[in-house]
Amino acid sequence: MAAALILVPAASFAGVFISVNIAPPVLPVYTQPLCPGDGYLWTPGYWAYGQEGYYWVPGVWVRPPQVGFLWTPGYWGWGGSAYIFHAGYWGPHIGFYGGVNYGFGYTGRGYEGGYWNHGVFAYNRSVNNINVTNVHNVYNKTVVVNNYNRVSYNGGRGGLQVRENAQEQAAMREQRIPPTANQISHRDAAAQDRGQLASVNHGRPQVAAMRSVNERAFNQQQRVANGVRSGQMTAGETRNIENREASINRETANDRSANNGRLTQQQHQQINQRQNNVSRSINNDRHNAARQPQVQRQQQARQQGGNGGGREEHR
User: Fold this and answer.
1) Contacts (Cβ under 8 Å, ≥6 apart) of 187
2) Which residue blocks in 131-261 are alpha helix, DSSP H?
3) pLDDT digits over 174-230, tens only?
4) pLDDT per residue over 238-290, tens digit each?
5) How far apart are CA 270 and CA 247, in angstroms?
6) Domain boundaries in the chain?
7) Which of 115, 144, 172, 236 is the most buried (most CB within 10 A)?
8) How many separate helices (H) and strands (E) can be counted in the chain?
C-alpha cells in the first residue's frame, strides 16, 4: 500500500490530508469502558494510517479543550482517486463525519450521547456506559439507529453514500479546535503498538477502547488476564509481564514524586516505550508455542484423535 501526503493551503483546518489507495477495514465491535467522571466526552475509535498500513486508535474518554465543545470524529472519504482522511475536531456543534456509525451516540448524523447544559455535560445512559457513583448528570433517551453498517468510509465503491446537511455545513464554518495534546499522544501510542496494525490483528485490534488516555497498564492487564484464561500464557510468561509492569509503575511514581506530580515529555516517552515493549511481549506470549500444561494436553489429545491413533481416556 502506497500512501502519499497531499499538502493543502495553510489556511485549511487540517493542514495535511493523508491519501491512501486501499479502503480502511470495517469498524470492529467493542464495549465502551466506564466513563471516568463528570466532564469526560467519548471519542470513538478509528482506523488511522502509518508507515505499516492501517492501525486502530482505541476509543477513549477525554476532556474537551473547553466547556461547551463537542467532538466531531474524523473519517475516511473517497476523493476520486484515493481515500482521504478528514481529521476530527472540537467545536460548539457536531459537523459532518461521513455518515459513519461509530456507535455510542455517534450514529452517523450528529451526536445522541449527551449535551451541554449551563456548563455541565449531561450524559445519555442509553448509549453510554455510566456509573452514577462517578457521573451524576444523566438522563435516558432511546436512540434509534437506522445505519448498522460497519463500513468505515464515505463515498466510492462500497462506501457510505451520505452528504452534508445544512446544519453540518454550518458547523464547518464555526470555530474549530484540533485534537488536544492528549489525543495526539493517544494516537501516537497506538501507532507504535504492532498489535493495533490491521495487518497483524486482521481487523480485530487487541485494544479497541480505553477508559482514559495513557491507561495502557489497565488494558495490558486485561490482555494478560485473557491470555491466562485461554491458556495462551504460561505462569512464567505471566510473572515476567507482571514484574515488568510493576517496574514501570515504580518508575512512573518516582518520576512524578520528583516533579511535583507531573511527568516531563521525555519521561512520558520513556514510559510509553517501555509499555510498547511490554505490549509486544504480551502479543508474542499469546501467539507462541508455549501453553499452560492443561491446554497442551488438550491440544495433544485433539491431534491424536484427529490422526486416529489416540485412545480415549475416562477420568
Assistant:
1) 48, 57, 179
2) 166-172, 181-191, 198-201, 216-230, 235-258
3) 999 999 988 988 898 888 888 899 999 999 998 899 988 866 665 676 677 677 778
4) 888 878 877 887 787 677 668 765 668 788 788 888 888 888 888 888 888 88
5) 13
6) 13-180, 215-296
7) 172
8) 7, 15
